[in-house]
Structures are given as C-alpha cells and as structure tokens.
Amino acid sequence: MSLYRLFIRPLLIQFDPEGIHRFTFTCFKLSQKSKFIRSLVSAQFSIKDASLERELFGLKFPNPVGLAAGLDKNAEAFDFLGSMGFGFIEIGTLTPKGQSGNPKPRLFRFVDDKALVNRMGFNNEGVEEAVKRLRKKRTNVIIGGNIGKNKNTPNEEATDDYLKCFAALYPYVDYFVVNVSSPNTPNLRELQGKEPLMKLLNEIMDLNRSKSKCKPVLLKIAPDVNESQLDDIIEVVKETAIDGIVATNTTISREGLSYSESEIKKIGAGGLSGQPLRERSSQVIRYIHEKSGGKIPIIGVGGIMTKEDALEKLDAGASLVQIYSGFIYEGPALVKAINKELIRKGA
C-alpha cells in the first residue's frame, strides 16, 4: 500500500473537498517553480519506456495515461502534474469569461464507493488568465484544452463562446476537447443533439482549418446517452471530421452507490465520477469502438481506480485513458502502477 493511501489520503478526507483542493493546488503551484522538486517527483513516479509511447492525432504521447479535465481548471499546475508521470494533462473546462460557478458546497465525497459528486458549474478565471500561465510553460508536457460556454450564454449563441476559447488557446495547447456534456451548466447537454452538435463542430473545424496547422479536436460526451444518441454522435464525428471522442464525462445517475437514499438525496444534484461510473463508461467506449469499426480514436475516462480498470478501457477500444477521481483517491502511484502493468503486458 502506498504512502499516499496509508497516511495522506486519510488526512485529506478530513477536510472540506473544495478547500483541500485549493490548498493542494497552492502546494503544486509553489512546487512547480522548482526544477529540482519536479525532478524529484518525476524520479519517483515517471516511467519511460518505448513500449508506452503512443502516436495519435499526430501527437507522440510518452505514455497513454493522462489527467482528465476538471482538476487543473485554470492551467495553474500542469508542469508539476506532468512530473507525476502523466503522459498528458487536460486543462479546463475554460470559458471566455471568468465565472464563479454554482453556489457552495458543490463538491462531495462518497468515500466508501471511491466516488465524487460535483456541481461546480464551469468555475474558472476565464480563458485569457489560463493563456497567461500557458505562456510560462516550463516543460514539454502535452496539454489539452477543454473548452465550454459561459453559463449565461444562451445555447443559440454558444458557438461564439467555443470559438473564442479555441482562438485564444490555439497557440498554447496541443489538442482541444469540446465539452457539451457537463451536467452542471443549465441546458448544456442539449448541444449533444445531432443538429446543434453538427453546427458547433463544423464551425470549430472551419476555424481550425483557417489556421496554419489543424490541431486535433475531440468531443467529450456524457455516459447518460442511449444507443440512438450514440449513433448520432458517431455520425456527427465522421461528418465533421473531428479527431476523436472523450468517453465519458460524469453521470447524473446514482446507480452503484452503496449509500442510503436519504444520504444520496442530501448531497443533491451534480455529476458523479469515480468507481460507480466504471462499467457504464466502458460500455460506451466499447459501443463506439465497435460501431465505428475502430475508426474513431477514443480517450477512455470514468471510474479508473486500478491498473485493471485502465486495461479494461484499453481493451474496450480506448487508445488513451484519463484519470480524475482515481488520482484523488489513489494518488500518483496509480499512474505509475498502470504504466508498469502496461510494460509488463507488453503495452
């Protein structure tokens, strides 16, 4: 058992989830200024092996394990997080204007189930603040930019928000993720419908093609879609010629939680992530992979708490994986464990 699971996690879960997140990120931000500290952390958790490398979307990933969006919303600690062994870091979700998000409390733990519920609501300082930090990048870690719309922007004007974020981030990120699947921004998931999604992605790709070089664009989808909706999404991805899918975001379902109905209701609305999401996320990945004949690259995310969970996603058809709740519950040792297992199995 790792030092993190024995001593650090039991201490951290004694505190308010969002408060301890802010404290932890303050430590990360201070630490990443030191090349020496980053080197020490990298020596502990990073694994370099040719068998781990993946070429996808025209990018060369040093390993297939990334950090999902939502942790480093404001691009504050991507260099330090990269030193923890991740093959890539996804920042955001970012919106054109800074916004405070939903009222607190808005982040909750279901510790027994290794799950989290959040209703953050795209809280971030705005894309321009993130750009200021990205300009100071100290390492060569691959960065993905997860983009969304402001809460007060009506859906019929949402495309403008995504285009603003794309244009601002274009010089500084390696790939983009279009987030239309968060359950915490009112009506956002309506943009997953075939017609609005086609319009949004076509306009983003038009802007992308106007640049000197097209950057990879992926779509992040919800786990709460049915097969008919997935079929529409697959068709849209093919017709718009975007580069892939991130499957999946958090779920509005509470299936798989061991807590009482009253305890679950007390927490209220929000997106559930962590262990209970594992099976559904893998089902979505497998469906997309099989229906597309393996032609749509997939980043698998949702409920990866162990090395076996990561292998399940890859076996289902994912080319890369991301962790979020698994990182919070298991620490950076999880990244190392996954990569070591991939080496053992010949990746």
From TrEMBL:
Output the Gene Ontology terms for molecular function. Answer: dihydroorotate dehydrogenase (quinone) activity
Q: Could you tell me the Gene Ontology terms of the biological process aspect for this record?
A: 'de novo' pyrimidine nucleobase biosynthetic process; 'de novo' UMP biosynthetic process
Active-site feature positions: S182
Q: Which reaction does it catalyse?
A: (S)-dihydroorotate + a quinone = orotate + a quinol
Enumerate the cofactors the protein uses: FMN
Q: Which keywords fit this entry according to its UniProt record?
A: Cell membrane, Flavoprotein, FMN, Membrane, Oxidoreductase, Pyrimidine biosynthesis
Q: Which domain of life is it from?
A: Bacteria
Membrane disposition? Peripheral membrane protein
Where does this one sit in the cell? Cell membrane; Membrane
Pfam families, per database record:
DHO_dh
Binding positions (substrate): K73, N118, R119, M120, G121, F122, N179, N184, N249, T250
Cell membrane among keywords: yes
Q: Which residues form the Dihydroorotate dehydrogenase catalytic domain?
A: 52-344
UniProt pathway: Pyrimidine metabolism; UMP biosynthesis via de novo pathway; orotate from (S)-dihydroorotate (quinone route): step 1/1
State the SUPFAM superfamilies in the record. Answer: FMN-linked oxidoreductases (SSF51395)
UniProt xrefs under PROSITE patterns: DHODEHASE_1, DHODEHASE_2
GO CC terms of this entry: cytoplasm; plasma membrane
Could you tell me what this protein does?
A: Catalyzes the conversion of dihydroorotate to orotate with quinone as electron acceptor.
Annotated family:
Belongs to the dihydroorotate dehydrogenase family. Type 2 subfamily.
Q: Which PANTHER family match?
A: DIHYDROOROTATE DEHYDROGENASE (QUINONE), MITOCHONDRIAL, DIHYDROOROTATE DEHYDROGENASE (QUINONE), MITOCHONDRIAL-RELATED
HAMAP family assigned: DHO_dh_type2
- What protein is this chain from? Dihydroorotate dehydrogenase (quinone)
List the source organism. Answer: Labilibaculum antarcticum
- Name of encoding gene: pyrD
